[in-house]
From TrEMBL:
<keyword id="KW-1133">Transmembrane helix</keyword>
<dbReference type="InterPro" id="IPR010279">
    <property type="entry name" value="YqjD/ElaB"/>
</dbReference>
<keyword id="KW-0812">Transmembrane</keyword>
<protein>
    <recommendedName>
        <fullName>DUF883 domain-containing protein</fullName>
    </recommendedName>
</protein>
<feature type="domain" description="DUF883">
    <location>
        <begin position="77"/>
        <end position="105"/>
    </location>
</feature>
<dbReference type="Pfam" id="PF05957">
    <property type="entry name" value="DUF883"/>
</dbReference>
<comment type="similarity">
    <text>Belongs to the ElaB/YgaM/YqjD family.</text>
</comment>
<dbReference type="GO" id="GO:0005886">
    <property type="term" value="C:plasma membrane"/>
</dbReference>
<dbReference type="InterPro" id="IPR043605">
    <property type="entry name" value="DUF883_C"/>
</dbReference>
<keyword id="KW-1003">Cell membrane</keyword>
<dbReference type="InterPro" id="IPR043604">
    <property type="entry name" value="DUF883_N"/>
</dbReference>
<keyword id="KW-0997">Cell inner membrane</keyword>
<dbReference type="Pfam" id="PF19029">
    <property type="entry name" value="DUF883_C"/>
</dbReference>
<feature type="domain" description="DUF883">
    <location>
        <begin position="15"/>
        <end position="64"/>
    </location>
</feature>
<keyword id="KW-0472">Membrane</keyword>
<dbReference type="GO" id="GO:0043022">
    <property type="term" value="F:ribosome binding"/>
</dbReference>
Amino acid sequence: MSDTTQQLALGGQKIVEDLGVLLTDSEEMLRLAANMPGEGVDALRERLRAHVETLQTALGDAQQNAKHRYRVAAVNAERYVRRNPWRSLGMAAGAGFLLGVITAR
């Protein structure tokens, strides 16, 4: 995986985590606003409810997208290994050697 691909994967994971936190906070605000009377609070509750629904949809979409990209990457990796077994073995041995050198220090 290239550095750019790793950065994109980490960025996508961070977005999903941030959406989860935002969703949790919004649900908590909605729960707290449910106990408050008043006309202005009713409007706030409706806006929060719409916001929570939007976040749930966005989080679900982001998770589906991440799953799809993972499956595609796994299929491509398997395809590469099957087409280039010796090269894959050499890369794995090299990575293992470097990891061994790094951990030995």
